[in-house]
Write a structure and sequence with these properties.
alpha+beta, Metal Transport, Frataxin, Chain A, five-stranded antiparallel beta sheet, two-stranded antiparallel ribbon
Length: about 140
């Protein structure tokens, strides 16, 4: 029963398939596919070439030393666990900022404020006001 449950569970989760003959990619696949909480792996590793991966917006160098995955950071290396702990939050934030739906929603956000008895609508986009406001505003040009 437990074996059937595990097989069913694994079939629902995407599996990382390594490139044949690439020992680094094989080790990455082993790490990713056996990661205890796959939901925490929110940023995917995309292989570019042997030892070179894209992680969110970062291009990273990966090597295997003493049967452990190490990722090049600055002048040294971090273990893959340390790398994920350190860089996942920043990459998630970058992806969230690039989300076109969220950016559109922010642009369309209209803040209503009361100015005296007149209701005024303003947008966070510099220098724009609603059509209602434009109708009541006097033009600086003479007609």
């Amino acid at each position: 029963m437990l074996k059937t449950y595990i097989i069913d569970l694994k079939s629902r989760i995407a599996v990382y398939i390594p490139v044949k003959g690439d020992t680094i990619d094989k080790k990455m696949a082993e790490y990713i596919n056996n990661y205890p909480d796959r939901q925490k792996l929110k940023i995917m590793f995309m292989r570019e070439s042997e030892g070179v991966y894209q992680f969110g917006t970062k291009r990273i160098g990966v090597k295997v030393a003493k049967d452990k995955i190490e990722i090049r950071v600055g002048g040294g290396f971090l273990s893959i666990d340390e790398f994920l702990d350190q860089y996942t939050p920043a990459e998630l934030e970058k992806l969230e900022r690039k989300d076109p739906i969220k950016r559109t929603a922010e642009r369309l956000a209209v803040q209503k404020t009361l100015v005296g008895k007149e209701q005024r609508e303003s947008s966070p986009i510099a220098g724009t006001t609603s059509p209602r406001r434009q109708q009541t505003a006097k033009s600086p040009f003479k007609k």
